[in-house]
Specification:
Number of strands: 13
Helix content: 10-25%
Radius of gyration: 16 Å
Bound molecules: zinc ion
Strand order of the largest sheet: 3-4-7-6-8-12
Mean pLDDT: 97
CATH class: Alpha Beta
Order of helices and strands: EHEEEEEEHHEEHEEHEHE
Oligomer: single chain
Structural class: alpha+beta
CATH superfamily: CNF1/YfiH-like putative cysteine hydrolases
Low-confidence stretches: none
Amino acid sequence: MKAAIPGFDSLPVVCGISDRHIGHDDFLKSLGVIKARLARMQQVHAAKVVKVGARTDLSREIAEADAAITDVRGIALSVRTADCLPVLFYDPENEAIGAAHAGWRGTRERICPGVVGMMVSAFGTDPSKLVVGFGPALRQCCYEVNSEFLVHFPGSVVKMAHKHYFDMVGENAGQLISAGVSSKNIYDCGICTSCMNGDFFSYRREKDAAGRMLTVIMLK
Ligand SMILES: [Zn+2]
């Protein structure tokens, strides 16, 4: 099974999330994405957003970036994850897209509002029209954290039976709404990588043995 984000299947974009049963090359082939036109980010758990243009060098990873935006047709933006949250953006008015890798550090650095802000300045995006999608991630059910997380995310840490759990997806949704995104335009695949470890990679469950899911979006 491949993961799908409801709401995104009707958009004029190519988009998908690989699972543990398909290799990245086969997955890209199934989407019709040409590897030479795949933008890959170094992903350093920070919040740098990069605008990808027709002349961007795609032969190597984009240094230090954890998010990318583009309005170039046929360039696919990609995010690799195993527990961190892949976030996709689509601006229907200006025909532009974005992709972000949001772990807890990137979430703390407000990477999603960073993408929204960059799309506003680069493409004139109206945040209230943006469509946003969440892929598979470690969810609150399985994301036990220490109480330090209360300092960073006071509204998104739940205490149950003397343990703390982080709602990373809820935190990102809240940040997006505070950046002007409409809650009705936020779609979530609802998959927890740990609960669904048979189909998806989970770094917390598998440690260094964990592979990575690839999440891709491209303007048709
Ligand atoms: Zn879970």
